[in-house]
Specification:
It is built from six helices and three strands, in the order βααβααβαα. It is mostly helical and 117 residues long. The chain has a single domain, classed as Glycoside hydrolase/deacetylase (TIM Barrel). Strands 1-2-3 form a three-stranded parallel sheet.
Length: 117
């Protein structure tokens, strides 16, 4: 059995180093990487879970559709990558379920919740 997961989010790492990056570039970098991953998964006939922020998904519904159409699972990675609020758990789940038409069964943010206490 192979279990793989990937994160898809607005690529905001430059901000951690005091740099700037446009929102369009954040989305573009993640999109390019996602399509490369999808090609590898298809080549090797492997399915994966993609933990995705709702913000990315709502801005790139075509990418999400491609992931779902290839038989992969979409799971929640919060609403925004750099901003966590407890209410985002429900909002992200609802947005992703509406977009994919599937139940979102997993959320990668539970670990972060425990670190808050």
């Amino acid at each position: 059995m192979i279990l793989l997961s990937f994160d898809i989010e607005e690529f905001d790492m430059p901000f951690e180093y005091g740099k700037t990056i446009s929102f369009e570039d954040q989305l573009s970098i993640s999109t390019e990487g996602t399509f490369k991953i999808l090609a590898l998964l298809k080549k090797h006939q492997v399915k994966a879970t993609f933990y995705c922020t709702a913000n990315y998904a709502l801005n790139k519904p075509d990418v999400i559709a491609e992931i779902v159409n290839n038989g992969h699972e979409i799971a929640s990675h919060g609403y925004y990558h750099s901003d966590f609020k407890v209410e985002h758990l429900k909002q992200s789940k609802e947005a992703l379920e509406k977009l994919t038409g599937s139940k979102i069964a997993s959320n990668k943010l539970f670990i972060k919740i425990f670190l808050l206490f």
